[in-house]
Amino acid sequence: MTNNEVMKSVRYTLEIKNKEVVDLIQAGGVELSVLDVVALLKNEDEEGYTNCSDRTIHAFLDGLILKRRGPSDGPAKQFSTSSIDNNTILRKLRIAFEMRDTDMIETLYNVGLNISKSEISALFRAPTHKHYMKCGDQFLRNFLKGLTHRYRPTSE
């Protein structure tokens, strides 16, 4: 799943405007203009489409966490901004939306995906752990769809 798709999905779910997306990204430490954000939110086949870098999606998700939860009391966990995977995106979304395992299970159940608590915890383990599970694109898509159902219940 591309970084652009994640950004578009979260933007749609929360019904935020382009200026607010710029503010979130800037809160995460990356300077972009509204025109840059418009290019990020275009479809791949549209003229002017720009690929969302890993650094930008990190900044967007970090800004979302800051907006929804406020700054942390202690030192924030530092992620490498050189690359991002679906597990990191899922972790940051979970933090931003203040979700527990049960909330995630319910969100996924509402889009027809039954998952256990142990499967959820495997997604958040260290990659070196023997029970670590990689988050696939389809799983992340279903989670984002579940968030949309949770925060925009009247939408299809």
* Count of individual domains: 1
Task: Round the mean pLDDT to the nearest integer and report it.
Answer: 90
Instruction: Return the structural class.
Output: mainly alpha
DSSP helix count? 8
Number of strands: 0
SSE order: HHHHHHHH
Computed over alpha carbons, the radius of gyration is 15 Å
Report the uncertain regions. none
Helicity range: 55-70%
Instruction: Give the overall shape.
Output: globular
Task: Report the β-strand fraction as a percent range.
Answer: under 5%
Distance between the termini: 21 Å
Oligomer: single chain
Largest sheet data: none
Report on this structure.
- The structure is a single chain.
- The protein has 156 residues and is mainly alpha-helical.
- The protein has one domain.
- Helices cover 56% and strands 0% of the residues.
- It has helices at 3-14, 18-27, 34-40, 54-69, 86-96, 101-109, 117-123, 137-151.
- Helix 2 (18-27) packs across helix 4 and helix 6 crosses helix 8 (137-151).
- The chain is globular.
Outline:
With 156 residues, the protein is mostly helical.
Layout of helices and strands:
Elements lengths: L2 H12 L3 H10 L6 H7 L13 H16 L16 H11 L4 H9 L7 H7 L13 H15 L5
Features:
156 residues, mainly alpha, 56% helix, 8 helices, 0% strand
